[in-house]
Amino acid sequence: MGVDGRARVELGRLPAAGALYRRALVGALPGTGRGRGRELPAVELGVAGVTVEPAHLADYDRVCGFRLADRLPATYLHVLGFPLSLRLMTAADFPIPLTGVVHVANRITVHRPVQVGESVDFRTYAENLRPHDRGRQLDVVLVGSVGGEEVWRGVSTYLGKERAAGGGAGRDRGDRPAPPAASARWRVTPRVGTDYARVSGDHNPIHTSKLGARLFGFPRPIAHGMWSKARCLAALESRLPDAYTVDVAFKLPVSLPSTVSFSAVTSGDGWDFALHGGRDGRPHLVGTIR
């Protein structure tokens, strides 16, 4: 048994992300698949002995702006273990369908640095299914351990929009505060979508295809939220401690191409940072490091 009485299922290897995305797309077609469950699956998936390919790590570092090093960026472990979480989320009885799901927040805790030569065991489960003004939210937890010691933990919060949802407060569309002074400005090209899809294995068409983006209501492809988080973290890389928690809320999507402004200020024992539109100042991401 896994955590909190969940049934533990050990996989022999990480699943192939491409096949899981195809399953999700087919299941979204009218007249296919079964009804979604209303409760979280009482299961925890695990896989042991996941290793890093140095060439893949170097490719990821380049795409996200990290220095080439043997220490794994905090966000890289999310990418490394994500196929396991994807297997959980594409199960027929998972309460929120993968197609159209919105990644609204992500929190990563690094207990200690992980080096490229270490073998990581992952486990994943879902928790905290709850109502939202626009549907339902839940958290997908991914835990990385080395030698039986937890070294890394990620919590991704996803929103599943539902037409019947409502009754809560609407989104505040009042005047937004002026964005903070920019520490840097980045030009985000369409290659960010395709390059990050390659290194992350996340080939959601809203990030790589104009047609795919339009099918989900976006006029242009959008940058992956975890690329935005990684790019902000890379900008602060030389000032990060060995152990920390980096917490972000994803606001408005970054359209491709566009220019964004990055800001970061020290705050007590950590950092407050944000990503805003370079022209209109609209918020894309706000985060903290503690």
TrEMBL record:
Annotated GO CC locations: fatty acid synthase complex
GO biological-process terms attached to the record: fatty acid biosynthetic process
Residue span(s) of domain MaoC-like: 182-268
Entries under InterPro entries matching the protein: Fatty_acid_synthase (IPR003965), HotDog_dom_sf (IPR029069), MaoC-like_dom (IPR002539)
UniProt-recorded Gene Ontology molecular function terms: fatty acid synthase activity
Region ranges (Disordered): 163-184
Domain of life of the source: Bacteria
Compositionally biased residues, Basic and acidic residues: 163-176
PANTHER family, per the entry: 3-HYDROXYACYL-THIOESTER DEHYDRATASE HTDX-RELATED, 3-HYDROXYACYL-THIOESTER DEHYDRATASE X
Family affiliation: Belongs to the enoyl-CoA hydratase/isomerase family.
Protein name (record): MaoC/PaaZ C-terminal domain-containing protein
Organism (species): Micromonospora robiginosa
Highest classification ranks of the organism: Bacteria, Bacillati, Actinomycetota, Actinomycetes, Micromonosporales
